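Trying the structure run again after the queue cleared.
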Amino acid sequence: MNDFLLIFRREASFDTQLTPEQLQEISKPWQDWMGGLAAQNKLVNQGNRLNSDGKVVKPNNVVTNGAYVEVKELIGGYTIIKATSLDEAAEIAKGCPILAVGGSVEVRQIISM
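Done. Tokens:
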């Protein structure tokens, strides 16, 4: 088994368009999906949502505000799963609730240092 990082991408303005009730409503599919992964012993790390604010550190000690305003898509969160291959990890990602709201999932194998 290998570890894979699932990176959840969404529209930059997605959270600002939802009411607290709508945010609560979309939490259930996430809980169900994560619970299913845990039940299959494929969930390594539940991951987290990420705030849209951030900083980017560049060479020569340059720090800029991120995410960038011209970006239409932000990384909304991540999780780490176990799978036998990149193809299996991509199949698992097909069940991600972010796809139902127009988001996407980037799947990357984690290589130990």
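The chain has two helices and six strands. Worth checking whether this holds up in the mutant runs.
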